[in-house]
Design goal:
Layout: E1 5-9, H1 13-24, E2 28-32, E3 48-49, H2 62-70, E4 77-79, H3 85-96, H4 100-127, E5 139-143, H5 146-163, E6 168-171, H6 172-178, E7 188-192, E8 196-197, H7 200-213, E9 217-219, E10 224-230, E11 233-239, E12 242-245, E13 248-251, H8 261-264, E14 271-280, E15 291-293, E16 298-303, E17 306-315, H9 324-335, E18 346-356, E19 363-366, E20 373-377, H10 383-399
Parallel strand pairs: 1-2, 1-13, 2-9, 4-17, 5-15, 13-20
Antiparallel strand pairs: 3-8, 5-7, 6-7, 10-11, 11-12, 14-17, 14-18, 15-16, 16-17, 19-20
């Protein structure tokens, strides 16, 4: 039966996109969040819409490169080891996938979402009144050392031949002409010109206003407390603000999703991968192109109204502290690449929990225990990049329409 009223739980960029595409079908939509729209991991990320990021973290040789990082001071990767069966299980699943076959399998599923979303973003900004500082300048992967620059050529060739994702290679002597903000002496860079970027908080604020204008009911500071079921179907969504009758629900709660499995009946191996960012005024010598310092896992985004340094990865559970050492690492790393790596005033020092799955693919599919609950979570570091395609696919699946992408790679049953 086609639903008439759908409740979307979680108002980050994934839930917001789900609400948008559901509303386009004519269904009534309520969007709720325990906080406010876009105020968690969706707000402070680096704002990349990046089809270039098709390769998952799990791949050949990753373990050999990762293990030394775990013992290095000021490493971009930090794991706070603890007696947590879910963490150890996740790590084991990740290690099992560090091979070429599984990497390529995941990459094709990731690529489908990224490429679809890239096109859908163009459509959204062409047809909707969304204000997000959208720019299509590509993304520059910058390398300090010749050995890492040359080694990356293998990944670039893979992206070019397997995923039709070409990049323009720049040698050290040509970098200053392309991006004068970079210091001299860097090894080189690859420019993925199909990538784009935006300001995430502006996107979510603007999208919220659009949804309200379209008739979506938004409930903020509203926490899910459970479902009332009739057989294998929900009839009511229970919340801290009262019960909401519903014909179906989408759970788009990011890193919190495993904590809701008693309600969703859909256990998923998601770990919160903590990332950090600093948002500040634009330096006088501000980069023109967004930058990723691939060797150091730090990214820089020049936005029209500001400037952001972000990334690092920290597996520390649901830790709510803002570690100044991680923020200092971002600043010091940017200083190795840029003439003017920072500016005043600082607008925000931020952290967010990325919802990491072992294979790098999100879960977009129906709960195995409840027929009319669909889970859309686990997008890792690519939630913003995958949001429109995820929202469109989730709406198609829930409304019984032919999906524009095959949902098979994202099924929860794969775990």
């Amino acid at each position: 039966m086609t639903p008439r009223h759908v409740v979307v739980i979680g108002a980050g960029v994934i839930g917001t996109a789900c609400a948008h595409y559901l509303r386009q079908t004519g269904v009534s939509v309520t969007l709720l969040d325990r906080d406010t729209v876009g105020n968690a991991c969706s707000r402070g990320n680096c704002g990349y819409v990046c089809p270039s990021h098709v390769l998952p973290l799990a791949g050949p040789g990753v373990l050999a490169k990762t293990i030394p990082l775990l013992f290095r001071r000021n490493s971009p990767l930090l794991v706070r080891w603890r007696l947590d069966p879910a963490l150890w299980s996740w790590m084991w699943r990740f290690a099992q996938r560090c091979n070429r076959r599984d990497m390529l399998s995941s990459a094709h599923g990731i690529a489908a979402l990224l490429n679809s979303s890239r096109s859908l973003y163009d459509q959204l900004f062409a047809t909707e009144k969304l204000s997000a500082e959208w720019e299509r300048r590509g993304l520059l992967f910058v390398f300090r050392t010749p050995s890492e620059f040359d080694h990356y050529a293998h990944a670039d060739e893979l992206l070019r031949t397997q995923f039709a994702m070409p990049a323009r290679r720049y040698e050290s002597k040509d970098l200053a002409d392309l991006e004068p903000a970079l210091v001299p002496g860097l090894a080189g860079a690859y420019h993925y010109e199909l990538d784009a970027h935006l300001r995430p908080d502006r996107l979510l604020s603007s999208w919220r206003d659009l949804l309200i204008a379209r008739g979506v009911q938004i409930r903020e500071q509203c926490e899910l407390t459970g479902f009332d079921l009739e057989g294998r179907r929900i009839r009511t969504v229970r919340t801290s603000q009262g019960n909401i009758p519903a014909d179906a629900a989408i759970v788009a709660t990011g890193a919190w999703t495993p904590l809701l499995s008693k309600h969703t009946r859909c256990p998923v191996p998601i770990q919160p991968g903590k990332g950090y960012s600093i948002t500040m005024a634009r330096p006088k010598r501000c980069p023109r192109i967004p930058l990723i310092f691939e060797e150091d896992r730090v990214a820089v985004t020049p936005m029209q109204s500001g400037y952001r340094i972000g990334s690092t990865m920290e597996f520390a559970g649901y830790d709510t502290s803002l570690d100044p050492r991680r923020l200092d690492l971002l600043r010091r790393t940017a200083g190795r690449y840029l003439h003017e790596p920072e500016a005043e005033p600082v607008e925000e020092r931020w952290y967010g929990w990325r919802p990491m799955t072992p294979d790098g693919k999100p879960v977009i599919g129906f709960s195995p225990g409840i027929d009319n609950v669909l889970v859309a979570a686990g997008h890792g570091m690519l939630g913003l990049s995958m949001a429109p395609a995820t929202g469109k696919l989730a709406a198609e699946m829930l409304m019984g329409e032919p999906p524009h992408l095959s949902p098979a790679p994202y099924s929860a049953a794969r775990f």
